[in-house]
Amino acid sequence: MPPLFRWRAPKTWLILFFGWNFPALIALSYYYLNAVLASQAFNPVYAITTTFSNWYLWMIMTPGAWMTAQRLPLDPPKNWPKWVGIHLLVMGLLLGIQALGNLAAFRILGLHDTMNLELWKIHLTLRAQINILTYGLVVGLFYASDYYRRYHNREQQAAMLQVQLAQAQLMALKMQLQPHFLFNTMNAIASLVRQNESKRAITMLGKLADFLRVVLESKGEQEIPLSQEVAFLQRYLDIELVRFNERLKVDFKIDAEAMQAYVPNLLLQPLVENTIKHGIAPHADAGKISVRAQKKQDRLILEVADDGPGLTEAPKKQGVGLQNTQNRLRELYGPSGYVTFGRSELGGLLVTIDMPYLDRPLLPQE
């Protein structure tokens, strides 16, 4: 994510200049009204020096406070004592610099005859309370602006992912409901009927109905628990197991902890579809598919492997399903979510998804 402000840009400093003039003018008005109400002489040199020098110094120190806040995210700090300690250290340093700057301004304008440690302490303590509050407001403004920017970006990502999810659902319909898929499925059911295995045929029809219902009545959720994703995948595989009979063996090994993780909707099914299409269907021999999921520290590792021919060379062009999966992972998790290809222990292709482990949706749910 790009920085909130570009400190070398003149526009940034112009915004800071006008921004810090606002409290300076308020402070100057306070000095003037106080002098009028107390029937005292108004010293413009002293009032301007006291007000504008103080706030202009904060203008110069703002980048330091914001860079500190940028390196110490608010959501949520992993080490609160360290987070608070660094902020206190930086605040103390900036307050010391600010007191030294005020002391120098007073000396240059002849309001002090000399510069020494005692006068520096006076300047430091005189404005300590207001400066501590100012540091808190400056840092708080950064966190508020950063939060709004992140929220706005998440809204944009959510809109983009909504389109991609719709595309993924349409892709699933296109891949699963194309004529040969329905023909093969209905042919398998008809074959069971001819063999007087009506119970299996009825079961198969029920599973097909369940599969179509899940696809067509999807609520469009961006992220779902892995347990729900696996349940959808099993409905799809129930149909394929009838199609391939003894030629297809499927092995699931899903860690219990991994089942609670949230993953993009329709993540695994296109990968398994691709494995069946290229690793199982073209060959007469029986084939095996392995689906695994495990949590490794703060990562979720998903693997789909087969015992087919695998990759003899790097693919020149990825299929729609794989490309869609990579795009959705990138949009949702950035560089933290990605797909890799390799050779499986079964001897065929291994597709691995490496993504953050999340126990709740990353994006707000409708």
Distance between the termini: 26 Å
CATH superfamily of the largest domain: Histidine kinase-like ATPase, C-terminal domain
Q: Give the H and E element order.
A: HHHHHHHEHEEHEEHEE
Quaternary state reads single chain
Could you describe the 3D structure shown?
This protein is an alpha+beta fold and 366 residues long. It has 2 domains: 10-126, no CATH class; 157-356, Heat Shock Protein 90 (2-Layer Sandwich), CATH 3.30.565.10. 61% of the residues lie in helices and 12% in strands. The chain contains 10 helices and 7 strands. The protein has helices at residues 10-37, 44-71, 80-108, 117-126, 128-176, 179-194, 198-216, 226-244, 269-280, 320-333; strands at 223-225, 248-254, 262-264, 287-296, 299-306, 338-343, 349-356. The chain has a 5-stranded mixed β-sheet with strand order 2-4-5-7-6. It has a two-stranded antiparallel sheet with strand order 1-3. The radius of gyration is 33 Å and the shape is rod-shaped. The two termini are 26 Å apart. The mean pLDDT is 80.
